[in-house]
Amino acid sequence: MRGIAALLVALFHFEMAIARFVPAKLTIFFEKCYLMVDLFFIMSGFIILHVYKDDFAYHIKGNSFKKYIIARFARIYPLHFFAMLLLVTLAITFSPHGTYPNAIENPWAIPTGFLLLHSYYIHNIYTWNIPSWSISAEWAAYLLFPFLALFLNKKKLSALILFVIFIIAAYVSIMYLLPRKNYLYPSIPVPHNLNTTYDYGFLRGIAGFMTGMLVYKLYQCSLLKGIFHKDIFAATIILLLVLAMHFAVSDAYCIILFAALVFVFALNNGYLHACCNNKFAQYIGKISYSIYMMQIFLQEPFSKGLRLPGVVGFGRGKQNIEFFDGLGYFFIYLVLLLAISSITYYTIEQPCRKWINRLGSLDKQGL
Question: Which comes out higher in pLDDT, residue 321 or 117?
Answer without folding.
Answer: 117
